[in-house]
Design brief:
With about 350 residues, this protein is mostly helical. The protein has a domain of about 210 residues. About 75% of the residues lie in helices and about 0% in strands. α3 crosses α13 and α9 packs across α11.
């Protein structure tokens, strides 16, 4: 063999390696996600039979806030818009339900749910029209102003809203065939509404609408070039967000049996936004984790220090965001990805 032939043999490329079998992360992750949801639902149905009434009430309020944060997540996490007035839409749903039940005797409780959600949807649609021309800090200030002036406005219409004293209402009573205690019945009513809200939001985000909202969030110019109507989707994002908040406000009235302007101050809107950021923007379980934060962290802060609960609350937010910059849901996803998988 000549030297030239020998050199060619040495320089001959090695045969290509067999392609590695891709890890089944996508389908497996989706399958395990549904398994986790099924287990979570099973635990949710089992919990009220094992807990004392006060803890059942706390879980009920977690579900109420989860529905409200689901709408805020749709607006902030998926559409990329900012809102500091989500508590105002929550209040609109609560007061719509309270007024219907207080002024119309015999009004069925289930009828108030679509009515409260519809009123909040129309208000969000009306608010979204001027807001679609704003962004960033300007939009945040406008939404904050809505949350600030709502409570004084409710106090001025005393004959309708009860003024500063609010409205006291009867809670839905469990039917005799259910065999449930009142707190358990309210819990399961709220659970049904929460599951329906999550399914509706999931279907919405997997449709063409969801893809348009994500395009709007990532790059408005590119979305407009691709044919996304920015004004329409920005307005609808506010309307859908308000609809979920209105439905949550309706269930809040069922559970509490009382509404007053002092229950819907600007602090509620800020706490909701903080809870969603801590839970995880744009994630499936972010609203639920954020609802746990909204429900339990203020009370924990109060127990730690009665004199300065706000300081403890702020420090807890800073600590969580330092450990999990993408929220608790993002932290859980990162930890799951680190689990070794079998090839």
């Amino acid at each position: 063999m000549s030297e030239t032939d020998s050199a060619q043999v040495k320089r001959a490329p090695a045969p290509p390696a067999a392609p590695r079998r891709p890890a089944p992360a996508g389908p497996l992750a989706g399958r395990w996600r549904w398994v986790a949801i099924a287990l979570l639902l099973a635990a949710a149905c089992y919990a009220p039979f094992q807990l004392v009434p006060f803890h059942v009430f706390q879980l009920t309020m977690v579900l109420v806030y989860a529905v409200a944060l689901l709408g805020l997540n749709l607006l902030v996490g998926h559409a990329g818009q900012i809102s500091l007035g989500h508590g105002a839409f929550f209040a609109v749903g609560a007061y719509t339900t309270a007024i219907l039940l207080d002024h119309w005797d015999g009004m069925p409780y289930p009828v108030t749910l679509p009515l409260a959600a519809g009123v909040a949807f129309l208000l969000g649609l009306a608010f979204g029209v001027p807001a679609m021309r704003l962004r960033g800090l300007y939009l945040a200030l406008v939404t904050l102003a809505m949350a600030i002036f709502l409570a004084p406005l409710l106090k001025r219409f005393e004959e309708l809203t009860g003024g500063s004293m609010g409205l006291t209402l009867a809670k839905p009573a469990p039917p005799a065939w259910s065999g449930l205690a009142p707190d358990q019945w309210l819990y399961f009513l709220t659970l049904v509404v929460a599951v329906a809200a999550f399914l509706l939001a999931h279907s919405l985000l997997r449709s063409r609408v969801g893809r348009a909202l994500h395009a709007l969030r990532d790059n408005e110019i590119a979305a407009e070039v691709m044919g996304v109507r920015l004004s329409s989707y920005k307005t609808l994002a506010f309307a859908w967000s308000a609809m979920f908040a209105g439905a949550a406000g309706c269930v809040y009235t069922w559970v509490i049996g009382f509404v007053s302007p002092d229950s819907f101050t600007v602090n509620l809107s800020i706490t909701m936004l903080a809870g969603l950021v801590v839970g995880g923007l744009g994630t499936l379980f972010g609203p639920l984790l954020g609802a746990l934060f909204v429900m339990f962290v203020p009370s924990i802060s109060q127990d730690i220090n009665d004199a300065a609960p706000g300081v403890i609350f702020g420090l807890l937010i800073i600590a969580v965001m330092y450990v999990a910059p993408t929220g608790l849901a993002g932290l859980a996803e990162r930890l799951i990805k680190k689990i070794p998988r079998k090839e």
